[in-house]
Amino acid sequence: MQTRRLPQRPYGPTMPATTHLTEMILPLRCTNSRLHATGALPKGASVSGRSTAWAKASRRTTSARPSWHGTACVTGAVSGPATTLGLLYQRGTGVAQNIGTAISYWTKACNAGHASGCYMVAAMYKKGTGVAQNPATAASYFAKACDAGDADGCLSLGASYDKGAGVAKNLATAVSYYVRACNAGSGDGCYNAGIFYHSGSGVAQSYDLAVGYFRRALAINPNDKEAQADLASAERHRPAGN
Q1: Which of 74, 89, 158, 226 is geometrically suited to a Cys-Cys bond with 102, CB 3.0 to 4.6 A?
Q2: Cα–chain center distance at 224
Q3: Secondary structure of the chain: what % helix, strand, coil (to 5)?
């Protein structure tokens, strides 16, 4: 059996997996006054200094903007701008790089119910980037991300309980969060749940459930070789006729 898996965000540990380039560009395309109105930018502050590369990226995405692009600045419907501004400050894109400021924006977004903001704050506390490393605080923000529907937040919280990082180790609770991650669309969450039911760690052993979770992992990622191998193993162990 393979070891349990952690989130692998495609743009790095603090970039939400679903971020579209136009969403990141949004604050720089909005007027500062609109950002002030949403509360994403403090009074008197401004976002400026867009780079040539950033401008080129903006032009490339103009024809593919989501339908909300025209009204998001006015309505604040994109919960970035706070999350998005955090990304800008994290990367130093259009503003001076400042991880502390990035975390403050992500915290603001998290408090407003934005899952990716919670996940990014958690990632910073987990790694000790821009703040003192604090596994307990990381776990609390992973929990907020999970409750807001972030699959990787659930997966990471499962890992926290799995390892006893910032919370009391509890394999049964770990499995419950891996299942939540699976239900939210995480193939790795499905895979992790399958491992537990296959081995009977923290839960009653069930090859039937293991098979089901491995199949769900493969439905999300058909090329997952480890899930394929573990599915075959679970199927061999199932009682005949199941």
Answers
A1: 89
A2: 20
A3: 60, 0, 40
